[in-house]
Predict the 3D structure of the following.
Amino acid sequence: MNDACEVLSAAKDLEDLVRYGKKMVECGLVSAHAGNISKRIGNSMLISMHGSMLDELEGKIVQVPLDPPSPLDYLASSELPMHRAIYRQTEAKAVFHGHGRFSIVESLMTEAAHIAPVDSESVYYVPVIPIIEGQSGTEELGHAAAVALKQHRGALIRGHGVVTRGASPEEAYAMLAVIEQACHIRYHLTLARALKR
């Protein structure tokens, strides 16, 4: 009976990642081979494979331990160090990394260490959005992301999109969408104000 439950649980975990990967592409939160997603499973994680397209994740998800190294690490997303750091230092059960256009633009339009949403819905979920620095795929970026996500549900990576955490894939996806919305609104508000001058 336990084996059957574990098989059903594993199938549901994979199904969740496949479903939310498709939603990320459909909503413009990633494109082509960009972005990566994962879900914690005990002392390991399911993570999208290196070079995979998030709307075609069937057969493109690998399970690796939270503590490196693993012989399967080379199959995982290049952002594996960031996912591992976040799981080790926070209560996250899911970690999503997207490349929304407005999120990237907002992270490059300021030298500040954070931005604040201006619309009421975004403020409710993410009153402050930190902006972190770090080269893609490095331990440095992983550490910066983990530190930021201890206190926040998501962060902008300067010039490189958004990383979010959640108690579930649904929550991690929702935070990704909220942050992109906040950046979209900020961008258009800034543009409108500039045009009125």
